[in-house]
Specification:
Strand content: 5-15%
Largest sheet: 7 strands, parallel
Radius of gyration: 23 Å
Number of strands: 10
Distance between the termini: 57 Å
CATH class of the largest domain: Alpha Beta
Mean pLDDT: 86
Strand order of the largest sheet: 1-10-9-5-2-3-4
Number of helices: 13
CATH topology of the largest domain: Rossmann fold
Number of domains: 2
Shape: globular
């Protein structure tokens, strides 16, 4: 049995190493002991149960809930992540780990034209992609570039990271998401750079998107999407959320807006895509998620356990 002093040393060393991510030499310097002693204490912490390890396999989702979600919303495949946290950041990080493996699997199975949207969840999913060699695959933006400085809006950087990690090809967008006026948008549509990206939008094997909340509900918690200034004045009360700046109501009906100013893959482009993967979680997104699933656009869906349980209870 360890003495009280040794147990305190075990706890202190284990906490610094596993919680604070301080390396063994720095711990030794802080405590005035040798690195070998730190290593011995860490091993003893494992043997005595002071430290326990649990490996979360991203392939181990919840199959029964996933199957129920597929049946309820007519999905090709659903992936329900074993997570009941209420903190949005924690939910996003956990879902992103599952989503990264899911995206990689679809690419390795043969998806060649992969379109990516912006948003926190998609961004974190791309950051978690495993290294692979998919030379036949091409990643490209589903929307024009944003003037927002938040990292999850940097669509070309999101595409670059994905292509770099999976050793695939990257195609970037050199057009703005919101040119500012219908006239300027039409000018961009006549350019060669638009023709190139528009051709990819017409031949999507896999579209990866998040699900956004009605902009009024999230003002102050995220940067404004390009195009939202066109919605506020008219149909905002009816919109519960959006996918790729395409807004929908509670019944899953896309709201007809004057989106001639916005340069992004169209609803028809998404309907024609072979697979549309939506990644979203957190109970605060429950209504937008439910409505997005009713649009008929989504074929694949990844969410957390808590949201899934709520969705299955909703009429």
């Amino acid at each position: 049995m360890q003495s009280k002093g040794e147990m305190q040393s075990l706890l202190q060393v284990a906490s610094m190493y596993y919680k604070d991510h301080i390396n063994q030499q720095e711990i030794a310097d802080k405590m005035g002991i040798t690195r070998q002693t730190v290593n011995r204490l860490l091993k003893k912490a494992e043997l005595t149960g002071v430290v326990e390890f649990r490996i979360h396999n991203p392939l181990e989702a919840l199959p029964e809930l996933s199957a129920k979600l597929e049946q309820r919303f007519g999905l090709k495949r659903a992936l329900v992540v074993p997570c009941k946290f209420r903190d949005r950041e924690m939910v996003t990080n956990i879902i992103a780990q599952f989503a990264a493996q899911y995206i990689a699997a679809l690419v390795e199975e043969g998806a060649e034209n992969i379109g990516l949207s912006w948003g926190r969840t998609v961004y974190h999913s791309i950051l978690n992609l495993p290294v692979a060699y998919c030379g036949d695959a091409t990643f490209f933006p589903l929307v024009g570039a944003s003037s927002q400085t938040a990292e999850y809006f940097m669509i070309n950087e999101i595409v670059r990271r994905a292509a770099s990690t999976m050793n695939a090809r990257a195609v970037y967008t050199y057009i703005p998401a919101d040119p500012g006026s219908r006239e300027d948008a039409e000018l961009f549509r006549r350019t060669k750079v638009y023709e190139i990206i528009d051709n990819y939008w017409k031949h999507i094997d896999l579209a990866v998107m998040g699900i956004g909340v009605n902009p009024v509900l999230e003002i102050g918690s995220r940067a404004e999407y390009p195009g939202e200034r066109y919605v506020r004045s008219s149909v905002l009360d009816d919109a519960v959320g959006d996918m790729l700046t395409h807004y929908f109501d509670a019944s899953g009906r896309f709201i007809p807006l004057d989106q001639a100013n916005i340069l992004c893959a169209s609803i028809d482009n998404l309907r024609a895509a072979k697979r549309v993967l939506a990644i979203a979680g957190g109970k605060d997104k429950l209504m937008p998620i439910c409505s997005a699933l009713k649009t008929g656009i989504i074929t694949d869906f990844i969410t957390d356990e808590l949201v899934c349980e709520c969705l299955l209870k909703m009429r």
